[in-house]
Design brief:
Length: 313
């Protein structure tokens, strides 16, 4: 079943109570799973954590597009990669880590690459989140042709809520290297309904706008509205009241779409896609940690359709 955006927004099962509860929750924005926040970034050496400019990357494949999952810590980048990978495998694609992305001497990265297949299948959500934090993968179709590369990187270097200099903190070298590489890019800007640092949303918006000025005409933008399960806009699995969802994103992140719209003489059009997403459900385990169960297939299916369209054109 395809996700059918309810553009009219007339027949929803959401009632006023749901929405009020949701609004109250948004106002006390919390991490849904109360996960302890770690300042440690897996996949980086001590030296790299101290100085992100020491992080070195190699983009060996300069021809296939790079899908960049962009967003602050805990918005769901890793779990989006996990969920998309699980889905892609069921429809015949191979998703594998690109080992040459980081120096061969980087033991952390090779360990992540080796563990990637088992982590993808793991029900230990916390494990995936903890262990995959900086990874470039390639997606290949059933005849082994590369379709695209997907990058999942530490959110701190995209937007760091703990840095009072945001949104004026410069990206570290490796982010600029990706930004400036000749590959076509599909930027996936992540937004969420209950961001803990909601008061900084304008700063995050301005960081996205800054990046927008570095997008080439052939690059594409997707806004992923993750954690859609926490909103009252879900009608049935995968079917979301998109009119309300979009309005919500605009309310939570004022002006976010502005530079991604073009004004014609008679109308204005979007140069982006907004896609609702639900990575999965997280249940607290006795003894600590969280168990992860994939969300409905409709979400990764829709996201993949959009990515594929953008890869093609
Ligand atoms: N309710 C809900 N929570 C989510 C969803 N996706 C991620 N989360 C929560 O957000 C946390 C951080 O996700 P993660 O992918 O590690 O974020 P990252 O730092 O951007 O890579 C997870 O551990 C979950 O608690 C989702 O679709 N729904
Ligand atoms: Mg992550």
């Amino acid at each position: 079943m395809d996700i059918k955006p309810q553009m009219g927004g007339t027949t929803t099962t959401n009632n006023a109570d749901d929405i009020q509860t949701y609004v109250n929750n948004v106002n006390v924005a919390t991490n849904p799973t109360d996960e302890p926040e770690t300042s440690q970034i897996m996949g980086l050496s001590e030296e790299e954590i101290k100085d992100p400019n020491a992080i070195s990357i190699t983009i060996a494949d300069k021809s296939n597009p790079i899908v960049v999952l962009f967003g602050p810590p805990a918005c769901g980048k890793t779990m989006t990669l996990v969920r998309l990978t699980r889905y892609l495998r069921t429809i015949g694609y191979a998703v594998e880590p690109i080992t040459s992305f980081r120096p061969a001497t980087d033991a952390h990265y090779s360990k992540m690459c080796n563990e990637f297949p088992s982590m993808i299948g793991s029900s230990e959500a916390a494990n995936s989140t903890k262990n995959i934090s900086f990874m470039m993968v390639r997606v290949m179709d059933n005849v082994g042709r590369v379709v695209c590369q997907i990058l999942e990187a530490p959110g701190e270097y995209y937007y760091n809520p703990d840095d009072k200099d945001e949104p004026n903190v410069n990206f570290p070298r490796y982010v600029n290297a990706i930004k400036n590489s000749s590959n076509r890019k599909i930027w996936c800007y992540m937004v969420e309904p209950n961001w803990k640092y909601f008061d900084q949303s304008l700063n995050y918006v301005s960081k996205i706008h800054k990046l927008k000025r570095n997008m080439r005409p052939a690059d594409k933008a997707i806004f992923i509205f993750n954690k859609i399960d926490l909103t009252p806009f879900v009608i049935t699995p995968g079917q979301v009241n998109m009119r309300s969802a979009r309005k919500e994103v605009e309310d939570l992140y004022p002006g976010i779409f502005t530079p991604f719209r073009s004004r014609g003489v008679f109308s204005t059009s979007d140069n982006f896609e907004l896609v609702p997403f639900h990575t999965g459900d997280y249940s607290k385990k006795i003894g600590g940690g969280f168990s992860f169960e994939s969300g409905p297939d409709e979400y990764p299916k829709k996201l993949w359709q959009i990515i594929l369209n953008y890869v093609k054109g």
